[in-house]
Write a structure and sequence with these properties.
heterodimer; A: 384 residues; Rossmann fold; 2 domains; five-stranded parallel sheet; four-stranded parallel sheet; 14 helices; 14 strands; B: 322 residues; mainly beta; Methylamine Dehydrogenase, Chain H; four-stranded antiparallel sheet; 1 helix; 5% helix; globular
Chain lengths: 384, 322
């Protein structure tokens, strides 16, 4: 059933092909629950509010001038997949049809199935899972989205710069929350922050569970400089600021949040990027949109660097061509785990409060590598 | 102590007075004030502000001596008569104008329109758009050849310099330069176009004869990493021997020997050194610092900063009227 539709999509994609067009396929989940209207409308920080294709398309469109000048071309087809198996099949089909690169906005396990099924470079647009940069890393896998650890490090650095060192940690009930809390604890340890207490929370109105659900009860009984809330869902975290017993800021998944992008970022030509995005999509550009845009820009960069291809040349160019993400520096992929090194923005949702790495922090080779897994840790064993 | 201090002040004032600074005014545009800051070039003190259009950016002297400021949020230029210190008129410049250059007779304005990705030719008298040329996204620097026949526009997104034939309003060549090209200068003999590359820590040198890149200068600052060196502003002496390039986040200005294509001096200035302007005697270089909200005056002969003067918020460009 699926095959004819796929063939049609691929035929359409190849129709306007140039002499050497870098073909890429974007794999997305069919019926994406993250983008259901009621959820997307809430626009929790760090969550997507629209399809990944928007950012990719903007990058390719605005790269047209550069592509034309280099007599190069980029064509991206989007392919939804309803399951892990479907994603793998779509990846194989794309490879067979001549795709040079896969762009992936899929759950972690689906993403790994896709990477292992093909021999192409895979750009991870949206998954921040640390394991994809560590034990489950792959040599051909590149990450545009900052990892959980990068975001936790960015926030920890910011707290250090404010001298808010005593933290109350509130952790949600999902497995993702548990994993992310461990990442947060490690970042806190790295930067000398102290968790005065760590408490689980739950979304509930049940009076028998009020110790777990009531912000006042959860934030009582300890002294702290800030509350760090780990809430992958977002609803509880949003309700927490200004409802703590002590008049202290909330950070983490609400209050002050570390993200790859915010539409209110004012420096380095960022407003032009956000404005272009909002003009066509009628929504503010989020971190997910920025990562997707950067994936598109990486494709354009590779196509311009190797206008004639072939696929192997593009794969090489992709790994080493710096990309300009309007955050003040040209960004490159880390050689040890394929993560795009980048500045992170600290936002309260209204504007951008500060940036990380914080000023004055030192690093032996690149200060951006103070965010996330660094080379000497050798967490990723896949040779590149 | 007190008398010593007084003597020192008297001495400093005497030195300042004899420092051969011609009497005049430096006009500084800033993005967040809707006003120009006026600095007395002799005392190096702020002597006032002048209200102008919204989000003033590129500022340039017109052939008739008036000042023109491009205002991105007003979609217009403000024309100011320095003799009276008053705005004479406004000229519409299309959407989101950033930088511009003027025809030698001052009758045509060539402007980069950021959001549209366009270079527009505007009739300075009527404000009518004469031509619009599609260019890469986020066009920035605009520079006209001395004969007025060729227009160069940089695109930050496409990393290209667009070479536009003014007569036909067509792009005749796209020159691939470094990442995020910003501002340009043309050597007085007209043979070389120098382009700053903000994300490449370099200047690309383009031959104006065949529009090929014939050289580049890479900047290095002790204690700063390549990614912190972000060249933006550039200007040259009238004899074409020296260029001055601001190095952005590296907080320095580089003095460059133009024929030798070598950096001779590095001068520490303010944060995110942006646009640079020479005075008429080419004795002082004025450097606008975008992130420390000030302007640094550099003694060119000594290659030393003399003074930093607080100006408006997010200062952008500067013109000296003597």
């Amino acid at each position: 059933m699926r095959a004819p539709a796929l063939a049609l999509a691929l035929a359409l994609a190849t129709a306007p092909a140039l002499a050497a067009t870098l073909k890429a396929t974007l794999l997305i989940p069919a019926d994406d629950s993250r983008l259901e209207r009621s959820r997307a409308e809430r626009a929790y920080l760090g969550h997507p509010t629209g399809p990944a294709g928007d950012g990719v398309q903007m990058a390719v469109e605005e790269g047209q001038f550069e592509l034309d000048a280099a007599q190069a071309g980029v064509a991206v087809t989007t392919q939804p997949a309803a399951s892990l198996d479907a994603a793998r099949a779509a990846a194989l089909a794309a490879e067979k049809a001549g795709a040079a690169v896969l762009l992936v906005d899929l759950p972690t396990d689906w993403l790994l199935a896709v990477v292992d099924a093909v021999k192409l470079p895979v750009l991870n647009l949206s998954d921040p899972a640390d394991r994809l940069r560590a034990q489950d890393c792959r040599a051909r896998l590149f990450h545009l989205m900052p990892s959980e650890r990068m975001r936790a490090d960015a926030l920890a650095q910011t707290l250090v710069s404010r001298k808010w060192t005593q933290l109350l940690l509130l952790v949600g009930p999902s497995p993702a929350d548990q994993l992310r809390a461990a990442t947060v604890q490690a970042s806190m340890k790295r930067y000398g922050l102290k968790a005065v207490a760590s408490k689980p929370f739950r979304m509930s109105a049940d009076p028998r569970e009020r110790d777990l659900a009531n912000p006042l009860l959860l934030t009582a009984g300890a002294n702290y400089d800030a509350v760090w809330v780990v809430d992958s869902d977002g609803e509880f975290a949003r309700s927490l600021p200004y409802r703590t017993v002590l008049p202290r800021p909330v950070v983490g998944d609400a209050g002050l949040v570390a993200v790859a992008w915010h539409a209110q970022f004012e420096r380095f030509g960022a407003p032009q990027v956000s404005r272009r995005f909002a003009k066509t999509t009628r929504r503010p550009m989020t971190a997910h949109d920025w990562s997707a845009w950067m994936a598109g820009k990486a494709l354009v960069g590779a196509a311009v660097a190797a206008p004639k291809g072939p696929n192997a040349a593009w794969a090489q160019a992709l790994a080493k061509t710096p990309v300009d993400g309007s955050k003040g520096t040209a960004m490159t992929f880390r050689s040890w785990d394929g993560q795009l090194r980048q500045t992170l923005l600290l936002t309260d949702g209204q504007g951008v409060i500060s940036q990380a790495p914080i000023e004055g922090l030192l690093h032996p080779s690149n200060v951006l590598d103070t965010l996330g897994a660094d080379a000497p840790e050798k967490l990723c064993k896949a040779p590149r | 102590m007190l008398t010593n201090a007084r003597a020192l002040i008297a001495l400093t004032l005497a030195l300042a007075a004899t420092a051969a600074a011609a009497q005049g005014t430096a006009y500084v545009s800033s993005e967040k004030d809707d006003a120009l800051t006026l600095i007395d070039t002799q005392t190096l003190a702020v002597k006032g502000t002048l209200p102008t259009c919204k989000r003033g950016r590129h500022i340039q002297r017109m052939p008739d001596g008036k000042l023109m400021v491009a205002c991105t949020d007003s979609n217009a230029a403000d024309i100011i008569d320095p003799a009276t210190g008053k705005s004479v008129r406004r000229v519409p410049l299309g959407d989101e104008p950033e930088a511009f250059d003027l025809s030698p007779d001052g009758k045509t304005i060539y402007v980069s329109n950021e959001d549209e990705g366009e270079a527009s030719f505007i009739d300075a008298a009527s404000g009518k758009k004469l031509q619009a040329v599609k260019v890469g996204k986020e066009p920035e620097g605009v520079k006209l050849s001395a004969d007025g026949k060729t227009l160069y526009v940089t695109s930050e997104v496409a990393s290209l310099v667009h070479v536009i034939d003014v007569a036909t309003a067509k792009v005749v060549k796209n020159v691939k330069v470094g990442k995020r090209p910003r501002r340009m200068a043309i050597t007085p003999d007209g043979k070389e176009l120098w382009v700053t590359n903000e994300l490449d820590a370099s200047v690309s040198i383009v031959s104006t004869a065949d529009h090929s890149v014939i050289g580049s200068i890479k900047f290095a600052v002790k204690g700063a990493r390549a990614e912190d060196i972000s060249p933006v502003g550039i200007t040259m002496t009238r004899d074409g021997k020296r260029a001055f390039v601001s190095l952005g986040k590296a907080n320095h200005v580089a003095f460059v020997d133009v024929p030798g294509r070598k950096v001779t001096d590095l001068v520490l200035v303010g944060k995110r050194a942006w646009n640079v302007t020479l005075d008429k005697a080419e004795a002082r270089l004025w450097v606008v610092n975008g992130l420390s909200d000030d302007v640094t005056v550099v003694d060119v002969a000594a290659a030393k900063a003399i003074k930093s003067i607080p100006v408006g918020r997010v200062p952008y460009g500067l013109v000296v009227v003597e």
